[in-house]
Every structure is written in structure tokens, then in C-alpha cells.
Amino acid sequence: MADKAFITSEILKWARKSAKISVEDAAKKISVSPERYLTWEDGIDFPTIRQAKILAKSFRRPFSLFFLPEVPKDFHPLQDYRRDDSQELDTASLFIIREVQEKQNWISQLFEEIGENTLPFVGKYSINDNPEVVAKDILDTLKINPSDYKKTPISEWIDKAESAGIFISRASFLHSRLVLDRDLIQGFAIADKYAPFVFVNSKNWNAPQLFTLVHELAHIWIAKSGVSNEIEIDFTDKPKSKFHPVELFCNQVAANALMPKELITQLGNDTFESNNKIFKQSKELGISSFAFLVRALNLNLISQSEYKSLKQDAQNEFEKFLEREKIKKEKQKERKGGPDAYLLRLNKNSKLFTRIVMDSFNNGSLSPSIASNLLNTQINKFQKFEKLLA
Questions:
Q1: Residues 63 and 89 occupy one common structural domain
Q2: Which region is the signal sequence (predicted)?
Q3: Taking the mean position of all CA atoms in its chain, how far away is CA 221?
Q4: Can you name the residues that pair with 170 across neighbouring β-strands?
Q5: How far apart are CA 152 and CA 205, in angstroms?
Q6: Radius of gyration of the chain from its Cα atoms, rounded to whole angstroms
Q7: Residue 271: exposed, middle, or buried by beta-carbon count in 10 A (0-12, 13-18, 19+)?
Q8: Are 181 and 128 in contact (CB under 8 A)?
Q9: What is the model's pLDDT at position 340?
Q10: 298: burial class by Cβ within 10 Å (0-12, 13-18, 19+)?
Q11: Looking at the domain assignment, is residue 129 inside a domain?
């Protein structure tokens, strides 16, 4: 008979509930009936060691945690800045938040212990400041000029942000059965003086990802950690009352940073004559045609009627664009067999975070088990990251 794991029933129940997993789904993971599973949460019986390990992995909790005498203190949940009518965060969303919090907590403690300087831009402003001023400070701090990108806009923003000490994590899934829903979570920020983190749901294409990234950077600048899901808002179609003031402010900052007033107003009137020109200009700025049109409307460069007409044309063009992108990705997948798994993992870990963990491991200050756990990669595969970072 298999050895039983004499776990604490209250912790098993807490681990399942905090992962937003039902009793039925938890029971399926170890091929027992829901009634049988509940005997473990009720403390009547105990799972085997193997079953308990499977559950610990499924709930994304250390196996040893199940044996504590009482429920431990968990990470503080991030402030939810999403719309009033948003659905509850699902398991995938909660797991990615927890994973990033673990990384952020480790690196922040490390930096504080070794005496790293705090970052002066974290919390430098508040929601009461002028979003144009905050946007300019972000551009100045990161040394970014939207009229003169040296590489693709999103790549430049990520590289410059990480060079300034901000960790950027991007992912669209945790594994094949845990995919991130962009309608639930587009991004989140953890504003920390030592190690601020930004997460972006890469389920979107590059333009909304970039807007999300800069929106979350605005959260760092006003020190408002939290989760976002309605970004790049079309203010003319949706009531402002449903949006949190912090989200509205951070959207304004992002719009000003990605489309500075002096840059947009100096564009010729012919820019808005056709959607081809609008699309071309938007692509150069790394933003969507929709964001560009909203910005032009807010700056009174186009009228409300022009906006509605151009927006409908942009929607039609966007649908064609998505279809072309879908075909292109399918062809690339056939040729290459899908994206590099280690590149996806590197983006999820954050390039900056990966480099720091690997350096700490290589100089002997970090154990193999901790380094492997932080990067979710076996030590003998670290060279894959080395090649990608190089």
C-alpha cells in the first residue's frame, strides 16, 4: 500500500481555492471521485504522497507547504483596476501573477540586501499630475524618441526599460492547458523601489502589447501596483464611469508617450486622407490605427464624424490584416515548427531577470535548485538562454 501524505487539510483546501480550481477538477487530476477528494479536505483521510505531489504541482504550491500546521501568509493580491463588470480572474491569470510576484520578491530582497540604489522614478508622480509631464519623464528616463526608433518600437521600449532597471515579462500561456485570456488580463505592474516588474499578455499582437507596456510603466511612475484589462480605450464609445481613474490616467500617459502632441500635430493633413496612410503612420509609431485615431480626435485633428468613418474603415482593414497575419504565422509554423520554447521562456522570465539569476548562479552565490526554480529551466539548459541573450 502506498505511503500516505499526512498533510494539513485546511492548507489543501486553501491551495485549491486560491488557485480557483473546483473540487471536481482537482479530483480529476489524481483520478479519484470528488467525494473521495473531499475526505482529504475534511481531514477524514489523506492522499498518497504521489497524489499530494500532483496536487501541489497543479495548485502551483511547494509540496512541503502542505505539511505546515496552518495556512501561511500568501502574496498580497494586486489591486484590481479592471472595469466594474469584469469577470473574476481565472486560474491562469492568478498563476502568472503569483509567478511574477515570486520573481519580483526574490530580486527585490536581493537588491536590498546587497545595497543596490532605489530607482528614483518609482512613485515620482501621482494621478494628480499632468499626464503629459509624466509621459515626457518616461521618455527622458528611458531615452526614447518616438519619432526615431532604432528598432521595432516594442523591442526598443523593452530594451530601454530593462536597461533602466524595470523587469519586463511577456507570455500568452503557462502551458498548453493554461492559456491567458486577454479579455481578463492584458497586463499588470508591481511598483517596487528596487525591482519594479511589468507583465504584458503577449496573446495580443505587437501594437496593443506596446500600449499595454507603456500603460503599465505609467503605473510604475505613480507607484500603483495592479491588474489591467481594458487598455487603449475608445473613450467615445464607452462610458468613462466604468473605468478606474488610475486606468484612465495611465492610458493618457501612454497616449502622450507613444504619440507626443508635438509629433502628431506636425503631421500633414493628408495623413488622415486614407487608411493606408493612417496604417503606415501607426506602424511607424508601433501603435494601432485605433489608438492613432483616438489621439487625433482628442487633439482636434479630425472631427467626430471623420473619426467614426475612419474608425469603421480601420476596423475593416484590421480584420484583413489579422487574416493575413494568421496565414503568415501558419506558414512560419509549418517551416519552423513553432516559436523557440526557450525564447518564450526567456520573455516570460524577463531578459534582465534571467541574466541576473544566471550571473548569481555562475558566481556561486545561488544554488542550482533555486536558480533552476526561478527560471523554470534545468541547469544544463542554461546555455540556451546564453545564446539567446548574446
A1: no
A2: none
A3: 17
A4: 200
A5: 13
A6: 23
A7: middle
A8: no
A9: 87
A10: middle
A11: yes
The SS3 call for residue 173 is strand
In a domain, 246, yes or no: yes
Whether residue 154 has pLDDT greater than 60? yes
Among residues 134, 139, 131, 203, the alpha carbon closest in space to that of 170 is found at 203
Q: Which of residues 212, 237, 258 is at a domain's end? A: 258
Alpha-carbon span 179 to 95, nearest angstrom: 11
Sheet holding 197-201, edge to edge: 167-171, 197-201, 187-190, 226-228
Q: Which amino acid type is present at position 254? A: A
Bridge partner list, 181: none
pLDDT for position 386 = 92
The residues pairing with 226 across neighbouring beta strands, listed in sequence order, are: 189
Q: How many residues does the chain have?
A: 390
Give CA–CA dist 299/367, Å, rounded: 55
Q: Give 90-147 pLDDT, tens digit per residue.
A: 999 999 999 999 999 999 999 999 999 999 999 999 999 999 999 999 999 999 999 9
Which of residues 258, 289, 318 is at a domain's end?
258
Summarised one tens digit per residue, pLDDT across range 229-285 is 877 665 555 555 578 999 999 999 999 999 999 999 998 778 887 788 888 899 999
User: Please, which residues have CB within 8 angstroms of residue 240's CB and are 6 or more apart in sequence?
Assistant: 248
DSSP-derived pairing of the beta strands 197-201 and 167-171: parallel
Q: Angle formed by the axes of helices 91-113 and 368-375, to 10°?
A: 140
Total structural domains within the chain = 3
279-326 pLDDT, tens per residue? 889 999 999 988 999 999 999 998 888 888 888 877 777 777 777 777
Residue 169, φ and ψ in degrees, nearest 5: -115, 135
8 A C-beta contact, residue 232 and residue 290: yes
Asked whether residue 166 is domain-assigned, the answer is yes
> Are residues 251 and 112 part of one domain?
yes
- Residue position matching grid coordinates 480626435: 297
Distance between CA atoms of residues 214 and 190, nearest Å: 14
Read off φ and ψ for residue 301, nearest 5 degrees.
-85, -20
Range of the domain at 47: 9-67
Please identify which residue in the block is written with the cell numbers 481555492: 17
Looking at the structure, do residues 177 and 249 belong to the same domain, yes or no?
Answer: yes
